[in-house]
Specification:
- With about 270 residues, the protein is α+β, with helices and mostly antiparallel strands.
- It is built from 5 helices and 15 strands.
- The chain has helices at about 10-30, 40-50, 120-135, 145-155, 255-260, and strands at about 55, 70, 75, 90-100, 105-110, 160-165, 170, 180, 200, 205, 215, 220-225, 230, 235-240, 245.
- The strands form 4 sheets. It has a 5-stranded antiparallel β-sheet with strand order 8-7-9-14-15. Strands 1, 2, 4 and 5 form a 4-stranded antiparallel β-sheet that branches. It has a 3-stranded antiparallel β-sheet with strand order 3-12-11, with no helix packed on it.
- Strand 4 (about 90-100) and strand 5 (about 105-110) form a beta hairpin.
- The longest helix is centred in the first third of the chain and has 24 residues, at about 10-30.
- It is an enzyme of class 3 (hydrolase).
- It catalyses: Release of N-terminal amino acids, preferentially methionine, from peptides and arylamides.
Length: about 270
C-alpha cells in the first residue's frame, strides 16, 4: 500500500488531534498518584476527549477495550487498563491516540511513581532521547531507516538495553496505523525517501534486559520475557510543505528538544 501524503490543510487537522493527545498525556501524568489504578487514568482520558470534542483512536481498534494503553513495569506496550493499584517505584507507560476531523494523532510517555530506581530513570531517559534523535534524523530527502539507525545508535551508546524487534513505529493520518512500518534498529540509508507530506509515528520501546517479549493471555499486553522493566515513548511528526519537520503531538511542535540537536522546526503549523 502506498504511503499517504497529506496537504497542509490535512496536516493542520492532524495538529489539532496532536494537541489533544499532548494535553491528555500531560493531564494523565500530572494526575497520577500512588494508589490510583490505570482504569482511573482511562477515565481521565475519556473525559478529556469529550472536553475537546475528539474521539479515540484506540477504543474498539481490533477490539481494544479502552482509550489508553497503560503498561506497568515489565509490561512494555499495549497494556489494558485494570484495577491494579499503582505503587511507589512503578514505571508506567501511557499510549494514547485521538481523532479530530477524521485525522489521527498518536503519542506515548513513560514516567515513574514515587521513589524511582536510578537505572529505571535512565531507561526512560534513554528511550525518550532516542525518540528525539530518530525524529531529528528523519529529514526531508533522507531514507526511512535513517530514523531506525539513529534510534538504535543512541540507545546502544548509552548502555545495554533490549530494543523490541516485533514492534515499531508507523505511518499515520486518516488511519492510526498506515504504511510504512518503522523499525527501531537497522542500518541507515534504506527504505522509502522521506518527502513533504509524510506523517510518521516514531516509537522506541526498550527494556533493561533483552529484546524478547511475549503477549499475555488477554491477547494485548506485551511483556518482557525476562521480567525486566520497559519504557516506551512516541510522537507523531511530519515533514511540512516547507521541507522542515514539525512534531504534531508536542505542544511546542518539538522546538525545544530538536533545537538541542540542531534541527529547526516548520512555522507553518
Amino acid at each position: 500500500m502506498a504511503i499517504e501524503i497529506k496537504n497542509l490543510t490535512q496536516l493542520k487537522s492532524m495538529r489539532k488531534a496532536g494537541l489533544v493527545v499532548a494535553d491528555t498525556l500531560k493531564l494523565i501524568k500530572q494526575s497520577t498518584q500512588i494508589g490510583m489504578t490505570t482504569l482511573d487514568l482511562n477515565e481521565i482520558a475519556i473525559a478529556n476527549l469529550a472536553k475537546h470534542g475528539a474521539t479515540s483512536s484506540f477504543l474498539g481498534y481490533h477490539g481494544f477495550p479502552a482509550v489508553i494503553c497503560a503498561s506497568v513495569n515489565e509490561e512494555v506496550v499495549h497494556g489494558i487498563p485494570n484495577k491494579r493499584k499503582l505503587v511507589s517505584g512503578d514505571l508506567l507507560s501511557i499510549d494514547f491516540g485521538a481523532i479530530i476531523e477524521g485525522w489521527h494523532g498518536d503519542a506515548a510517555i513513560s514516567f515513574g511513581l514515587g521513589e524511582i530506581d536510578s537505572a529505571d530513570q535512565k531507561l526512560m531517559d534513554v528511550c525518550e532521547q532516542s525518540l528525539w534523535r530518530g525524529i531529528a534524523a528523519g529529514k526531508c530527502g533522507g531514507k526511512l531507516t535513517d530514523i531506525s539507525a539513529a534510534v538504535e545508535g543512541y540507545i546502544n551508546s548509552q548502555g545495554k538495553y533490549g530494543i523490541l524487534r516485533e514492534y515499531g513505529g508507523h505511518g499515520i493520518g486518516s488511519a492510526m496505523h498506515q504504511e510504512p512500518h518503522i523499525l527501531n534498529f537497522g542500518p541507515a540509508g534504506n527504505g522509502p525517501e522521506l518527502v513533504v507530506g509524510m506523517a510518521l509515528a516514531i516509537e522506541p520501546m526498550i527494556t533493561r534486559g533483552n529484546e524478547r517479549t511475549k503477549v499475555l493471555s488477554d491477547d494485548w499486553t506485551v511483556v518482557s520475557q525476562d521480567s525486566s522493566k520497559g519504557a516506551h515513548f512516541e510522537h507523531t511528526y511530519t515533514i511540512a510543505p516547507d521541507g522542515k519537520v514539525f512534531v504534531l503531538t508536542a505542544s511546542d511542535g518539538g522546538a525545544s528538544e530538536l533545537a538541542k540537536l540542531g534541527v529547526e522546526i516548520s512555522d507553518l503549523l
